[in-house]
Amino acid sequence: MLISTIAWRCSHDAAAEGFGGFYVIAAGAGTGKTALLTAGVRQAHRLGFTVLADAASHRDMTPPFGVAARLLGMNDCGNVPASMDDLHQRLDKLVANGPVLVAVDDCQWLERESLEWLCALSTRGGLHRPLAVMLTVSVGEPSRDPELIEELRTLSARPLRLPGLDVEATEKLLSHRLGTVPDASFAAKCGQLTLGNPLLLTLLADAMLDHGVEPTAEHLGSCTRSTWAPSHGSCSPACSAYPRTGRPSPRYSLFWAGPAIST
User: Fold this and answer.
1) Do 196 and 166 meet the contact criterion of CB atoms below 8 Å apart?
2) For the residues of the chain, what is the DSSP string, one character each?
């Protein structure tokens, strides 16, 4: 419901009122930021928006305005922007033909110039143009420009928080992953252990499958924080879920290392 509501508000308001707002979703890894952004993109497509969507990466070794130029298709035509004005002019031409959604995932990896351009878009909405902006920032990952990332977050039209999955959603995720319905008490314990983080719940379910742990009340003792504490100071193969950094967010560090679940 949260995803569909925010996605609808951002894109629908842009079409109806001329500006859909400037939204920055900042949360930890695995909490559903990309899913929310994807929902916004789909909703915008349904409403007839021109969608400019991209995802930044730590592998991006781009020149100034590189990611922004890629977003606007300026790299393809060889017309690399020399200034922010070049980007604004390109965007203005698109907005003149109808509503536009700018959507960028993992903004913490953007180079400074593209970040400055995105920050500037928050004020250009005052011209009542049909423009919506949705961005995500992964909290806990290093940023190329922490000060600009913080500025970007403060410009969000409203704080967007992604709460952890509730008990019902946790049960559904575990059921889907495990192929069996978990006991309610077991699902509640898993939710408590992972703070309802969808990615961590998925990794926990996979570990349960690997170790033959049944999701029943009798195995509640297998779901403890000490069970998941790192061993030998090494990171588990599950770190492949974070290919951009090779390590999890520090907040969840105790979950990473080969789990020794006792049955």
Assistant:
1) yes
2) -HHHHHHHHHHHHHHHHSEEEEEEEEE-TTSSHHHHHHHHHHHHHHTT-EEEEEE--TT----TTHHHHHHTTTTTTT---SSHHHHHHHHHHHHTTS-EEEEEE-GGGS-HHHHHHHHHHHHHGGG--SEEEEEEEETTS--S-HHHHHHHHHTSSS-B--PPP-HHHHHHHHHHHHSSPPPHHHHHHHHHHHTT-HHHHHHHHHHHHHHT---SGGGGGG--TGGGS-STT---GGGGG-TTTSS--GGGGGG-S------
Query: How many other C-beta atoms lie within 10 A of the C-beta of residue 178?
Result: 16
Query: Is 234 part of any domain?
Result: yes
Per residue in 129-162, pLDDT (tens digit) is 688 899 999 888 888 889 999 999 888 877 677 7
Q: Which of 154, 178, 211 is the last residue of a domain?
A: 154
Reported pTM:
0.68
Q: How many CB atoms lie within 10 A of CB 169?
A: 15
Q: Do both 129 and 44 map to the same domain? A: yes
